[in-house]
Amino acid sequence: MLFTVSEIPKDVEIQRHLTSIHIEEWMREDVFHLKWWLLISLILIFLFFWWKVVDKSKLRDACMFVTLSIIILMGVREYGEELTLWDYPTDIIPIFPPLSSINLISLPLIYSIVYQHYKTRKGFIWATLIITGIICFIFEPILMWAGLYHLLKWRYYYSFPIYAAMAICIREAVNKINCINEKYKEKIKNRKIAT
Protein backbone atom coordinates (compact mmCIF):
# COMPACT_ATOMS: atom_id res chain seq x y z
CA MET A 1 0.00 0.00 0.00
CA LEU A 2 1.81 3.03 -1.27
CA PHE A 3 -0.59 5.72 0.04
CA THR A 4 -1.45 4.23 3.44
CA VAL A 5 -0.96 6.52 6.41
CA SER A 6 0.60 4.57 9.24
CA GLU A 7 -0.21 7.02 12.02
CA ILE A 8 -2.06 10.26 12.52
CA PRO A 9 0.32 13.23 12.69
CA LYS A 10 0.51 14.91 16.10
CA ASP A 11 -0.84 18.26 14.86
CA VAL A 12 -3.86 16.54 13.25
CA GLU A 13 -4.56 14.70 16.49
CA ILE A 14 -4.38 17.97 18.44
CA GLN A 15 -6.76 19.61 15.95
CA ARG A 16 -9.18 16.68 16.28
CA HIS A 17 -9.09 17.02 20.05
CA LEU A 18 -9.66 20.80 19.88
CA THR A 19 -12.58 20.30 17.50
CA SER A 20 -14.12 17.79 19.89
CA ILE A 21 -13.78 20.25 22.78
CA HIS A 22 -15.23 23.03 20.64
CA ILE A 23 -18.28 20.93 19.73
CA GLU A 24 -18.87 19.99 23.37
CA GLU A 25 -18.57 23.64 24.43
CA TRP A 26 -20.94 24.71 21.64
CA MET A 27 -23.53 22.15 22.75
CA ARG A 28 -23.26 23.31 26.35
CA GLU A 29 -22.89 27.09 25.96
CA ASP A 30 -24.04 28.30 22.52
CA VAL A 31 -26.80 26.40 20.79
CA PHE A 32 -30.30 27.66 21.63
CA HIS A 33 -29.00 30.23 24.14
CA LEU A 34 -29.90 33.93 23.93
CA LYS A 35 -26.76 35.04 22.05
CA TRP A 36 -27.19 32.22 19.56
CA TRP A 37 -30.76 33.36 18.82
CA LEU A 38 -29.60 37.00 18.68
CA LEU A 39 -26.95 36.11 16.12
CA ILE A 40 -29.42 34.19 13.98
CA SER A 41 -31.91 37.07 14.25
CA LEU A 42 -29.31 39.65 13.21
CA ILE A 43 -28.28 37.59 10.21
CA LEU A 44 -31.91 37.15 9.14
CA ILE A 45 -32.60 40.87 9.62
CA PHE A 46 -29.60 41.80 7.48
CA LEU A 47 -30.64 39.34 4.76
CA PHE A 48 -34.25 40.56 4.84
CA PHE A 49 -33.21 44.23 4.72
CA TRP A 50 -30.76 43.54 1.89
CA TRP A 51 -33.39 41.70 -0.14
CA LYS A 52 -35.83 44.59 0.31
CA VAL A 53 -33.43 47.35 -0.76
CA VAL A 54 -31.21 45.65 -3.32
CA ASP A 55 -31.90 46.65 -6.93
CA LYS A 56 -33.19 43.37 -8.35
CA SER A 57 -32.44 44.48 -11.91
CA LYS A 58 -28.75 44.46 -10.94
CA LEU A 59 -28.90 41.44 -8.66
CA ARG A 60 -26.07 39.66 -10.48
CA ASP A 61 -23.64 42.52 -9.69
CA ALA A 62 -24.79 42.71 -6.07
CA CYS A 63 -24.38 38.95 -5.64
CA MET A 64 -20.93 39.07 -7.24
CA PHE A 65 -19.97 41.89 -4.84
CA VAL A 66 -21.31 39.92 -1.86
CA THR A 67 -19.54 36.72 -2.92
CA LEU A 68 -16.16 38.38 -3.42
CA SER A 69 -16.56 40.17 -0.08
CA ILE A 70 -17.39 36.94 1.74
CA ILE A 71 -14.35 35.21 0.25
CA ILE A 72 -12.04 38.00 1.41
CA LEU A 73 -13.70 38.44 4.79
CA MET A 74 -13.64 34.71 5.47
CA GLY A 75 -9.87 34.80 5.06
CA VAL A 76 -9.55 37.93 7.21
CA ARG A 77 -11.79 36.38 9.87
CA GLU A 78 -9.84 33.15 10.00
CA TYR A 79 -6.45 34.91 10.12
CA GLY A 80 -7.66 37.17 12.91
CA GLU A 81 -8.98 34.32 15.00
CA GLU A 82 -5.96 32.12 14.31
CA LEU A 83 -3.61 34.95 15.39
CA THR A 84 -5.91 35.62 18.40
CA LEU A 85 -6.55 39.22 17.35
CA TRP A 86 -10.29 38.88 17.97
CA ASP A 87 -12.88 36.25 18.75
CA TYR A 88 -16.51 35.55 17.91
CA PRO A 89 -17.59 33.74 21.08
CA THR A 90 -20.98 32.48 19.83
CA ASP A 91 -21.09 30.06 16.91
CA ILE A 92 -24.19 29.19 14.91
CA ILE A 93 -22.62 25.87 13.95
CA PRO A 94 -19.71 24.28 15.82
CA ILE A 95 -17.41 23.31 12.94
CA PHE A 96 -15.81 25.93 10.69
CA PRO A 97 -18.30 28.54 11.83
CA PRO A 98 -17.88 31.45 9.41
CA LEU A 99 -21.49 32.46 10.07
CA SER A 100 -20.45 33.19 13.64
CA SER A 101 -18.94 36.37 12.38
CA ILE A 102 -21.77 38.84 11.98
CA ASN A 103 -19.27 40.93 10.01
CA LEU A 104 -19.01 38.14 7.44
CA ILE A 105 -22.72 38.58 6.68
CA SER A 106 -23.35 42.25 7.35
CA LEU A 107 -20.38 43.88 5.61
CA PRO A 108 -20.85 42.25 2.19
CA LEU A 109 -24.56 43.07 2.20
CA ILE A 110 -24.03 46.68 3.31
CA TYR A 111 -21.21 47.36 0.85
CA SER A 112 -23.12 45.76 -2.04
CA ILE A 113 -25.98 48.20 -1.43
CA VAL A 114 -23.49 51.10 -1.38
CA TYR A 115 -22.07 49.70 -4.63
CA GLN A 116 -25.49 49.73 -6.27
CA HIS A 117 -26.42 53.23 -5.13
CA TYR A 118 -23.16 55.10 -5.81
CA LYS A 119 -22.22 54.75 -9.45
CA THR A 120 -19.21 57.07 -9.60
CA ARG A 121 -15.87 56.12 -8.10
CA LYS A 122 -15.74 59.32 -6.03
CA GLY A 123 -19.28 58.89 -4.70
CA PHE A 124 -18.63 55.25 -3.85
CA ILE A 125 -15.37 56.04 -2.04
CA TRP A 126 -17.00 58.76 0.08
CA ALA A 127 -19.99 56.57 0.91
CA THR A 128 -17.67 53.67 1.72
CA LEU A 129 -15.60 55.80 4.08
CA ILE A 130 -18.73 57.00 5.89
CA ILE A 131 -20.23 53.50 6.11
CA THR A 132 -16.89 52.06 7.22
CA GLY A 133 -16.71 54.64 9.99
CA ILE A 134 -20.20 53.69 11.15
CA ILE A 135 -19.30 49.98 11.04
CA CYS A 136 -15.98 50.37 12.87
CA PHE A 137 -16.92 52.93 15.48
CA ILE A 138 -20.62 52.26 16.12
CA PHE A 139 -21.61 48.79 14.86
CA GLU A 140 -18.56 46.87 16.12
CA PRO A 141 -18.70 48.43 19.64
CA ILE A 142 -22.39 47.44 19.81
CA LEU A 143 -21.45 43.87 18.84
CA MET A 144 -18.76 43.96 21.50
CA TRP A 145 -21.26 45.19 24.09
CA ALA A 146 -23.71 42.43 23.06
CA GLY A 147 -20.97 39.81 23.54
CA LEU A 148 -20.97 38.72 19.89
CA TYR A 149 -17.47 40.05 19.19
CA HIS A 150 -14.37 40.30 21.40
CA LEU A 151 -11.29 42.32 20.56
CA LEU A 152 -8.16 40.66 21.94
CA LYS A 153 -5.14 42.30 20.29
CA TRP A 154 -7.07 44.52 17.88
CA ARG A 155 -8.55 48.01 17.87
CA TYR A 156 -11.64 49.23 16.04
CA TYR A 157 -9.64 51.69 13.98
CA TYR A 158 -7.39 48.91 12.63
CA SER A 159 -10.42 47.57 10.73
CA PHE A 160 -11.15 50.89 9.03
CA PRO A 161 -8.49 50.77 6.27
CA ILE A 162 -9.02 47.04 5.72
CA TYR A 163 -12.80 47.33 5.23
CA ALA A 164 -12.54 50.46 3.10
CA ALA A 165 -9.77 49.05 0.88
CA MET A 166 -11.64 45.77 0.53
CA ALA A 167 -14.85 47.47 -0.61
CA ILE A 168 -13.04 49.77 -3.05
CA CYS A 169 -10.99 46.92 -4.56
CA ILE A 170 -14.05 44.70 -4.91
CA ARG A 171 -15.93 47.53 -6.66
CA GLU A 172 -13.06 47.79 -9.14
CA ALA A 173 -12.99 44.01 -9.63
CA VAL A 174 -16.75 43.78 -10.24
CA ASN A 175 -16.62 46.70 -12.67
CA LYS A 176 -13.65 45.12 -14.49
CA ILE A 177 -15.46 41.76 -14.72
CA ASN A 178 -18.53 43.52 -16.13
CA CYS A 179 -16.39 45.44 -18.61
CA ILE A 180 -14.74 42.22 -19.82
CA ASN A 181 -18.17 40.58 -20.05
CA GLU A 182 -19.57 43.46 -22.13
CA LYS A 183 -16.57 43.40 -24.48
CA TYR A 184 -16.99 39.66 -24.93
CA LYS A 185 -20.72 40.05 -25.66
CA GLU A 186 -19.93 42.76 -28.20
CA LYS A 187 -17.30 40.55 -29.83
CA ILE A 188 -19.78 37.66 -30.12
CA LYS A 189 -22.43 40.01 -31.50
CA ASN A 190 -20.02 41.35 -34.15
CA ARG A 191 -19.07 37.80 -35.18
CA LYS A 192 -22.73 36.90 -35.66
CA ILE A 193 -23.31 40.04 -37.74
CA ALA A 194 -20.24 39.27 -39.88
CA THR A 195 -21.42 35.74 -40.68
Total separate domains: 1
Low-confidence parts, pLDDT < 50 over ≥5 residues?
Answer: none
- Mean pLDDT across all amino acids: 90
From the N-terminal CA to the C-terminal CA, the straight-line distance is 58 Å
In order across it, which strands form the biggest sheet?
1-2
Note the beta-strand portion: under 5%
Helix/strand order: HHHEHHEH
What does the overall shape look like? globular
Question: What is the makeup of the main sheet?
Answer: 2 strands, antiparallel
Number of helices: 6
Helix content: over 70%
Structural class of the secondary elements? mainly alpha
Total strand count, please? 2
Radius of gyration: 21 Å
Entry summary:
The protein is an all-alpha fold. 74% of the residues lie in helices and 2% in strands. The protein has 6 helices and 2 strands; from the N terminus they run αααβααβα.
